[in-house]
Amino acid sequence: MVPSRPGRDPYRAYLDSLGSAESRRTMRGCLDRIAQLLAGDDAVTGEGQPWHLLRYEHTSRLRAAMIDRGWSGAYVNKHLAALRRVLKEAWRLDLMAAEDYQRACDLSPVKSTRLPVGSQVDAEALGAALYACDMDDSPAGARDAAVLATLYSTGCRRSELAAMRLSDHDRAERSIRIVGKGDKERLVYLTEAAAERLDRWTAVRGNGPGALFCPINKAGRLRRTGGRLAGMTGQAVADLLTKRLVEAGQRRHTPHDFRRTFIGELLDAGVDLAITQSLVGHASPATTARYDRRPARRSREAVDRLRLPEA
User: Fewest CB within 10 angstroms: 9, 104, 151, 171, which?
Assistant: First the structure.
């Protein structure tokens, strides 16, 4: 097949339009997997591929192939979203006729209802991890304790935490401004205990401009780029969680487990669904409701009323 014209690659145009490195990494992975399905070659990437030549018969076959592979509905739909966007860029670059683009994108989402993945972070695990941080008197100890407390107190995504800047933090209000998915801003709030953890870290960090949480080298020096404190990656946030939990003898948890726990705790406490949705930055209240633990608890309580007959 004929590749895209040099300098007019829909793959590159789409990825460049995304607002964060985390989003670019995720959607690059989706497009690369789609390109591998098309080529039958696990070594190819989506860059330079002839996306503009795809027609409805190709995209509908791709959708079927994803389902046949046993991918979950949500996983298939994420890949279909990436496919639609790269085709839109092909149309914007005058590589594809509008009618061909519209027909190729006319794909129904895969319907599925799945429970959110992950597990709850219990107070014992968090307390043990914080103690492990406190036993580390290096700058990393203060930083990691503040990261743990911020994740638990705000339910933010790992990419959102990695993107925080010192200027986003309002100490008086105990708030942090977050730029989430779709470039939407929101404020999240720290508990008093979490705010104290963050204060200890900022005393080590200093008042210089740049990231709120920065990488620290083995010598304990904070990493800077161009006179500003450099930012962490989302993966680095996940890695430090694993490190501190393992040090504390606890099971591993992901940043999303902290987010899941935050939502569940708020709903258990009777916080309004709309307020919870606003705090975590979900586009739909239906997404937030999926994390509600109360229906499962009521179902379990109902089953507990049954009694097996004595043998």
Answer: 171
CB 52 within 8 A of CB 11: no
Alpha helices (H) along 248-293: 255-268, 273-280, 285-289
Catalytic residue among 28, 197, 259, 260: 259
Helices (H), the chain: 10-17, 21-39, 56-68, 73-92, 98-104, 123-134, 139-154, 158-162, 192-205, 234-247, 255-268, 273-280, 285-289, 294-303
pLDDT at 306: 86
Pick the CATH number of 123-295 from 1.10.443.10, 3.30.930.10, 3.40.50.920, 3.30.390.50: 1.10.443.10
> Exactly one of 52, 79, 157, 253 is catalytic; which is it?
157
Write the CATH number of the domain with boundaries 10-104: 1.10.150
For residue 129, pLDDT beyond 90: yes
Q: Is 260 a catalytic residue?
A: no
Known catalytic residue at 25 = no
Distance CA 263, CA 271 (A): 10
pTM of the model: 0.71
